[in-house]
Amino acid sequence: MTTGPVHTGEPNDRDLDDFVRSLRESGVDLLVGTALDFAGVTRSKGVPVRRLPSFASSGMGASPSWVVFCADNGIAFTPGIGVSGDLRLRLDPAMVRPIGDGMAWGPTSYHEQSGERSSLCARGRLFDLEGRLDTLGLTAQMGAELEFTLIAPDGSRLGRSPWAAYGMHSVVAQRAFLTDLTRTLEEAQVGAEQIHAEYGTDQFEVSLAPLPPVEMADTAVLTRILIGLVAARHDLAPSFSPLTFVGGSGNGMHLHLSLARDGRNVFGTGDGPHGITSEGGSAIGGVLAGLPDLLAVYAGSVVSSLRLTPGSWSGAAACWGLENREAALRFLAGTPGNPHGANIELKIVDPSANLYLATAGLLGSALDGIARALPLPAEVAGNPADAEDAALIRLDAEPSAALDRLASSALAEQLFGADIVEGAVAVRRHELDVFAGSTPEEITAALRLAWS
To answer: For the GS catalytic domain, which residue ranges apply (predicted)?
Structure first.
C-alpha cells in the first residue's frame, strides 16, 4: 500500500525561499539528503542549497536498487527490484538543519515518479505506524542510545593509553573530540542527554532525549552523521559495527519506548508489577512475541550474531526484567531517578539495523500486543542464563534461521509490507553468501567501517 507525501510541517514555496536565503547567509553551500538502505547504511544525495525547494517537491532520482545496496557495496536484486525504474528521494524540509563545514542535512523518503510514496520506503512505514497511534488514542515517545568505537581512519585500533571503562581518564584522552561533538550536537539542535565513555576500549555512547517516533529516528540518523563529521576533524573514525574487533565490546543502538493513554503512562500508572497497566503488559507481551520474527530487522547483519551472546549485556534472552541488562527487554520504572517516566528498552538492536524499520518493529509489535490483549509474560529478575528455562528463552541468533523467520512472518508483512520484507531478506542473505566460510576476524575487518 502506498500513500501520499509524508512531509511533516512542510513550509510553502515562499517559506522555502526564505529558508534557503537564511541557510546561505549562515554559510551553507551543500544540502545533503539521506536515506537508509535495508543494510542499515546511510546513502545520500547532495545538491546546491538553492535547489532545496526542488528537492522537497519533485525530489532527486535514485534507482530502486538503492534500498537493496549491501554493506559490502554489492546489490541484492529481487524479482521486484532490478535495473529498471526510478524512485524520487523527497526531502523533508521541516527537519533540515545546518551541520557545519558548509553543509546542511535533511532526511528523505522514497517516492514514485507519480508522487506517491514507494512501498519500499521504511521511513514511510514508520509514519504509518505513528499515524495509527492517534486512531488508537495513544501517544508514543521514543529514545535511542548510540554506541560507537573510535578507531583510526584506516580501520586500525587507536593504540593509545590504557582504557578505563566509564572512566574520566578515557574522557580526558578524547576531550578535544568530545567537546567538539557536544558543541556540534547543540548547534544542530540535537537533544543529547548523555555523552560518555563506555565499557569497551575507545567506546563511547550518545543518548538522545525522547521524541515522537519518526522525529527520533531522523534525529538519531543525524547524530550518527555528526559523530562521523566531528571524528574526521580529529583524524578519527567512528565504527558503528555491531562488533568492531573480535574479543572487544559490541556496539548497540538501544531503543526506548513509552506509551500513554489520556496522558497516563501505560508502563507506570497501573496496579501490575512495577506499576504496569494491562495495556502496558500487553505491549511488553507483543514486543517479546515478535522478537523471533523481527530479530533479522533488529540485528540482522552478518556481524550481529557475533555481538548477541550471553554475558555481553546485549540482551540475548527473550525475556523482560526490571533494570535487567541481560534481558532483551529492559524495564525502567517510573521513579524519581527516571525523569522521563516508565519505559521499555529493547537492547538487541544494533547499528547495522535500518533504524526506521527497527523503530517500526518495536512500536508495531507493542501495538500488536495491545490489539491482541496479550498477557504480561513472567518477569526474569536475575541473569537469564541462570533461569530454569534458560535454554528456552535464549534468542536464536543464527542468521539464516532468523532470515527464514522474517521471510515467512505475517507480523513483518503487516508492519513493513511484502516488498520491504523481500528486499531486507535479500540484502542479509547476500551478506551470508559473501562471507560464507569467513572467520569472525575477517568479517569484522571487512565491515568495520561499513555503517560509518
So the answer is: 122-452
